[in-house]
Specification:
Layout (H helix, E strand, L loop, with lengths): L9 E3 L3 E6 L6 E9 L2 E6 L8 E8 L4 E14 L6 E7 L4 H19 L1
Antiparallel strand pairs: 1-3, 2-3, 2-5, 3-4, 4-7, 5-6, 6-7
């Protein structure tokens, strides 16, 4: 049995994300894998070094909800048989209103999953 190492629950969410590695001006778009109160996982084309700061804009169409925040890359792994990587990031300075919406969304998702 594998123990959960994460501090926060994550829920699967395939949403469009726009991100840029700071301080660059170039933005890229990709899809998220999952999201949690403390961070998210999404796919990128290029390798991103640990502790790199990124600006992300995240849209959840189901609720409708979007926010922009700074995140810090915590890990990176190559996706087998694909030309991309998964990157795990933690939120650095998420706005309070976005954190509240996100917590409500995760809580509602978790409640649906237990019924």
């Amino acid at each position: 049995m594998q123990l959960e190492r994460r501090k926060y629950l994550r829920v699967p969410e395939e949403a469009e994300i726009t991100y840029k590695v700071l301080p660059d001006f170039k933005t890229s778009m990709f899809i998220t894998k999952d999201i949690g109160q403390g961070g998210l996982c999404f796919y990128v084309q290029e390798a991103i070094a640990e502790n790199t700061l990124l600006e992300v804009r995240f849209n959840v169409e189901k609720i409708p909800f979007s926010f922009k925040t700074i995140v810090k890359a915590r890990w990176l792994k190559r996706v087998p048989n694909a030309e991309c990587y998964e990157v795990g990031v933690e939120f650095v300075n998420m706005p309070d209103h976005a954190a509240q919406h996100l917590m409500q969304y995760i809580k509602s998702f978790a409640e649906k999953d237990t019924h």
